[in-house]
Amino acid sequence: MVKFYSTEYSYDYGFSAVSLAYFLRYPNPYSRHVASTDTIDRHYDPETHRLTTTRLHVKRSRLPPAVLKLLPRSSLGANEDGSTQSFILEKSVIDVKEGWMETESRNLDWNNVLSVIERHSYKRPALASSGEEMDISNGVSLPKDEERTDVSVSVTLKSRIGEQIRKRRQRWGQQASATSVTGNGEIVPVEDEPVKQSWFSSWSSGAVRSAIESISLQRTEKSQPKAQKGMSVVLARLQKGGLQAVLEGMRNDRELAV
Amino acid sequence: MSASLAPECNEVKERYDTCFLKWYSEKYLRGTAKTDECEPLFREYKACIGKALKERGIDTMLEEARADNAENDKEYLKPSKGS
């Protein structure tokens, strides 16, 4: 019960610029829904020259109507129109000596319905012509670099509905009078649990799981080219106007999103 | 710069991010970084964001996700390397 998506492409920019753009990629015109990005962990190992970073992104998202039809909204923590906040945990490791960056992003919130793991691998090609230093700010420039970076992407989608049922069943006895907090902060009794159980039971054979995975795969197929375009916009801004252009672009994208 | 999920951390985040971008471009990418020069600022930022995550109950979600994902990796993603 797992679906995969994978693709490979190259950026016509050096590894330095691409790795920097990766850290600066949100928000961009293709990802205006990214509300915030925080670095929650970072470690630099001077021995290996590897830099490990963990970031938390918050996205405003809307669940696909097709998923809303399949699952009770309450199980997804969504509002009536399906809008919800998504938390994405992203880990990246960069090895500047060897010229690669590996990244992994996971969704955290509707994780109990569907787990999405996205891995990117960026590589400096072994043989490529050397480009020019890129000036990115007064007195700050990126080192000379090849003008290409190879990328391979894989996305793993896995529905976790069955696990949720098991966990719910285990919890049943303990939570006879459970309450739940709505989006407005009101506390309401959870009255739909028994309904949900029978609902889940009738569907647990995998039909829902497989439907959710298929819908999510379609979404991934649409969103991946957008992510790539978003990076390209950031890279073009970096080349044209340096860090200042990237930061100005971000500011505009954020204003347009509100 | 991108915003912090906690508005009260925006100011220290901005100072840290600015420091990091400079260090990353000038030292790290050139292979001349001896230490992470922005670590003192990062500690300040981390204290702020750590508190904010706790207040919003996101810290537990993060821990659960990390534990859960480790377990999940073992089960479903045996030796599958992204590269």
From TrEMBL, chain A:
Pfam families: PRELI. It comes from the Eukaryota. PROSITE patterns: PRELI_MSF1 (PS50904). Coiled coil: none annotated. Residues 2-184 form the PRELI/MSF1 domain. This is PRELI/MSF1 domain-containing protein. The lineage of its organism: Eukaryota, Fungi, Dikarya, Ascomycota, Pezizomycotina.
Automatic annotation (TrEMBL), chain B:
It comes from the Eukaryota. The keyword Glycoprotein does not apply. It comes from Zasmidium cellare. InterPro entries: MDM35_apoptosis. It holds the Pfam family UPF0203. This is Mitochondrial distribution and morphology protein 35. The lineage of its organism: Eukaryota, Fungi, Dikarya, Ascomycota, Pezizomycotina. Keywords: Disulfide bond. Belongs to the TRIAP1/MDM35 family.
